[in-house]
UniProtKB/TrEMBL annotation:
Gene3D superfamilies found in the cross-reference section: 3.40.50.2300
Keyword Signal: yes
Presence of the UniProt keyword Glycosyltransferase in the record: no
Keyword entries, A-Z: Signal
Pfam families the record matches: Bmp (PF02608)
SUPFAM superfamilies in UniProt: Periplasmic binding protein-like I
Protein's recorded name: BMP family ABC transporter substrate-binding protein
Species of provenance: Rhizobium croatiense
InterPro entries attached to this UniProt entry: ABC-Purine-Binding (IPR052910), Peripla_BP_I (IPR028082), PnrA-like (IPR003760), TAT_signal (IPR006311)
Amino acid sequence: MSNDLTRRTLMKSAAAAGLATAFAGRSVAAADEPLGIALVVPSPVGDVGWGHALAAGIDPIKAAYGDKVKVTIIENIAEGPDADRIMNKTVADGNHFLIAGSFGYQNGALQIARRNPKVTVLHASGFQVAPNFSPFAAKYFQGTYLLGMAAAAVSKTGKLGSVSAFAIPELITSVNAFTLGAQAVKPDIEVSVVWVNSWFDPAKEQEAAKALISQGCDVIFSNAQDTPSVISACEDAGIYAFNLNSSMKKYAEKTYLGCVATDWSPFFKASVDAHLAGTFKGANTFLGVADKVVEVVDWNPAIPADTMAKIKELEAKIADGSFSPFTGPITKADGSEGVASGATLADAEIVAMNWHVKGVTTPLPK
């Protein structure tokens, strides 16, 4: 497994954080005690979504180590002082491996790492790095490009939509790649976005989905919602929809287009292995299709066969590194050049993205 760079997301200063590869140099707890692993997440773990995907990523560790590890999952913890207090308590209680599952946990989690050099901290989508502190994120854009191709192929209106959590680079890149993938099939396609400014707000998510449907959008991307609200609303309306992180197909048996799923177990397992071996070294980790962390699943059979053939061809090229969704020419929504012809954005530029591509009709929030 490779670890090149960096969920919940890398702000513009991430570009200066640098890219690295993964593990080497840290010691651990007493050998006769089980390793305490604590996962803290901002929303309920439930049966779908981000928290669910993180929790599922720990299962192979439990299977591999058995009673040599003790796992604690603390869910629905808002970013801010409560999260800091709870994360500190997990370490005080003897957990030497902490997974801080939201971008807003960054400062508190980093302080814990600095105060406790024998504790290993993994942080979702931040940009800070320390000897025992690694941010991690997924290359969702690789999957959303492919689902954009599928969305364009099944769309009758030429209008697509996205209900998106926060206007942060990780989710901006997901929308942009979705748009570019759709334009590869239908160049004139347009994408409207509603930013709900929440990871978990079922009522607001449903309202946003219905608003997009009323505007003529006939495929909707649920971009980092931890509930199936958007997916269910689209099923009720007969509108295709897809999402990130974990499959929500059971909430939309007919109109589920697919899922950009994440499997964090390769990264989590390697990190625990390194911690126990005393060789962990903090690095900025950005994982995708090639790392078997990102995979598109549950493709809808309504996607035309010729489109699926092209999708599978590009999926293979993404995996072997011969294709990137962010290879130019790419024009920004304001008409200026985003990526020159023949150029490809580096990971550091992708994780700092603060602009939309041409075809996204909703301006970014100020």
